[in-house]
């Protein structure tokens, strides 16, 4: 699924990265705990979170995650958006809560990120 399709499904506002909306996403990881994101997400994962600060962008940068959707209508400050732009990330904001956002994407065949094999 492309980020453009995700944006339409979530009725999300694009805050930066319009030029990358045709990028494909293979899975979704929803969390406000960046330690969990570090443990379970990968580069073709869309991150759903309500944590709107530079730490979120830095975590995504470490994993080569190129797209973040902030839930509950949250929007990062300009400094955080600038950091996302420097990293060529797509940043969106949806009014849906995390549970609803996850459900919308799941019912449209976007799978959740897989847990690592033990």
Protein described:
The chain contains five helices and six strands, in the order αββαβαβαβαβ. The chain has one domain (3-111): HprK N-terminal domain-like (Udp-n-acetylmuramoylalanyl-d-glutamate--2,6- Diaminopimelate Ligase, Chain: A, domain 1, 3-Layer(aba) Sandwich). The model has no long low-confidence stretch (mean pLDDT 93). The chain is of the alpha/beta class and 118 residues long. The chain starts with a helix and ends in a 6-residue tail after the last strand. The chain has helices at residues 3-10, 34-40, 54-62, 78-86, 98-107; strands at residues 13-16, 27-30, 45-49, 67-70, 90-93, 111-112. It is globular and about 35 Å long. Helix 3 links the parallel strand 3 and strand 4 (67-70). The chain is 36% helix and 19% strand.
Quick overview:
The protein is 36% helix and 19% strand.
Q: What is the CATH topology classification name?
A: Udp-n-acetylmuramoylalanyl-d-glutamate--2,6- Diaminopimelate Ligase, Chain: A, domain 1
CATH architecture label: 3-Layer(aba) Sandwich
CATH class: Alpha Beta
For the largest sheet, list the strands in their spatial order: 1-5-4-3-2-6
């Amino acid at each position: 699924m492309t980020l453009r399709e995700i944006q339409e499904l979530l009725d999300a506002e694009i805050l930066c990265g319009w030029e990358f909306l045709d990028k494909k996403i293979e899975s979704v990881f929803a969390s406000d705990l960046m330690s969990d994101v570090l443990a379970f997400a990968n580069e073709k994962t869309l991150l759903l979170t309500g944590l709107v600060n530079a730490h979120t962008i830095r975590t995504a940068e470490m994993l080569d995650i190129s797209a973040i959707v902030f839930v509950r209508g949250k929007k990062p400050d300009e400094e955080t958006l600038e950091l996302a732009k420097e990293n060529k990330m797509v940043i969106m904001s949806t009014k849906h809560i995390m549970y609803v956002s996850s459900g919308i994407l799941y019912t449209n065949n976007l799978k959740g990120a897989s847990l690592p094999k033990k």
